[in-house]
Design brief:
eight-stranded parallel beta barrel, 385 residues, TIM Barrel, binds ligand G3I, alpha/beta, 41% helix, globular
Length: 385
């Protein structure tokens, strides 16, 4: 740990100690034996800016060390897969609540918020939703799915990605003037109104939940323009939408800082909040949220790719620092910044080392850079330090 970072940690540790001390001696003890090695967690460093989250289907299959890292660093968890339509509702009338219930209870017991992901998507959604159904029947199935799921966790889940990735890829100048909706089974069954319906059903089931539209690559180019067209239509049609999730699957090859800065302002101008919902920065690897077979089993999740060099880790740390500087600049609009996975071992792009803890749960340079970005902000986040 550099001298500067050590001083920074010292100051935040003091602040955090007096903060946790109010919660009682147990909280202080937890800090001493943490997987963080006693240094303050990101959630504490950023507590006056926004929530800091992680994604995973915990606690089952996670080690004590991993769960310790979650408790130390994050104050919101997104289930990575277990609440998606396919896993949780594989057939009509068949629900698999065991993992989601365990996740929600684990978080509730630790006062960690949960952000639900995702109610309506074109992927990981079984065919029964659409099979032999006319418009009225598919609408009934959609409503039943959302009402049951959101209703079960009413008051326990803080917000939901109501619709995920509805906008198509590969836009151009023409499509940027339209919503350019993906040709999904939902569009084919219900038309573009499926989005408004989903938001209304979610709001009816839990009027206090924060409701989000979530997508990747919407910060720039034609997809950003299409997102504005879509969001304006949803607002005009009275969809109870609170925010936009910019997923944030970026790479050291592609960190569109200026575009992100403008996109957050554009969404705020519509009266919406913003969250960075699936943040990861691959080392010279793939960006975007498209799920593909990838190099290796589990879409690249298993095994290690070429180990990152010191220079790679520094480039990644710089990228994260610049991103957090922009998020922090918009802290009045940004509600939450969630990493997509806990560690490089847990990442869907693990071979590209995209997260802030390495495969052995050790803090990477990116972690310290994110702390620095908050405590000693770079006056010009568009350039590396
Ligand atoms: O759980 C099963 C296991 O039982 C089975 O043996 C194994 C065989 O392949 O598959 C396991 O499920 C896999 C699951 O991840 C859990 O590891 C699925 O095949 C695999 O498709 C699934 O991938 C997930 C992907 O979404 C699916 O589209 C990734 O983990 C998850 O990180 C990824 O997350 C998405 C967000 O939801 C939306 N935005 C993009 C992001 C990345 O693609």
């Amino acid at each position: 740990m550099s001298g500067r970072i050590a001083t920074v940690f010292g100051c935040v540790a003091l602040a955090c100690l007096s903060w946790t001390a109010r919660g009682g001696p147990d909280d202080v003890k937890k800090g001493e034996k943490s997987g963080n090695g006693g240094v303050p967690g990101l959630k504490d460093v950023y507590k006056d800016s926004f929530r800091i989250g992680t994604a995973g289907d915990l606690p089952r299959g996670y080690s004590d060390e991993e769960l310790g890292l979650v408790e130390e660093n994050f104050n919101v968890v997104t289930p990575e897969n277990c609440m998606k339509p396919g896993p949780i509702h594989p057939e009509e009338g068949t629900w698999r609540f065991e993992r989601p219930d365990a996740l929600v209870q684990w978080c509730l017991d630790r006062q960690i918020a949960v952000h639900g992901h995702t109610l309506v998507w074109h992927a990981q959604t079984n065919d029964w939703f659409f099979r032999d159904g006319d418009k009225a029947e598919v609408t009934r199935r959609l409503k039943e799915h959302i009402s049951t799921l959101v209703g079960r966790y009413k008051g326990k889940i803080r917000g939901w990605d109501v619709v995920n990735e509805a906008i198509g890829d590969g836009g151009n100048a023409q499509t940027s003037e339209t919503e350019h909706l993906r040709n999904s089974p939902w569009v084919r069954a219900l038309g573009p109104e499926f989005l408004t319906l989903a938001f209304k059903f979610a709001h009816e089931a839990d009027p206090d939940a924060r409701l989000y539209y979530n997508d990747y690559n919407i910060e720039a180019g034609p997809k950003h323009a299409s997102s504005l067209v879509l969001l304006k239509r949803l607002i005009k049609d009275g969809a109870p939408i609170h925010g936009v999730g910019i997923q944030g699957h970026w790479s050291t090859n592609n960190v569109p800082i200026e575009a992100i800065d403008r996109a957050i302002a554009d969404y705020a101008a519509l009266g919406l909040k913003v969250s960075i919902t699936e943040l990861d920065v691959t080392i010279r690897g793939t960006s975007g949220g498209q799920f593909g077979p990838g190099p290796g089993p589990g879409g690249g999740r298993a095994g290690g790719g070429t180990p990152p060099s010191e220079q790679d880790l520094k480039a990644q740390a710089d990228a994260y620092a610049r991103l957090f500087a922009v998020f922090n600049k918009h802290k009045d609009v940004v509600e939450r910044v969630t990493f997509w996975g806990l560690s490089d071992r847990r990442s869907w792009r693990s071979r590209q080392h995209p997260l802030i803890f390495d495969a052995n749960n050790r803090r990477k340079p990116a972690y310290d850079a994110i702390v620095e970005a908050k405590l000693h902000p770079n006056p010009d986040p568009s350039t590396p330090r």
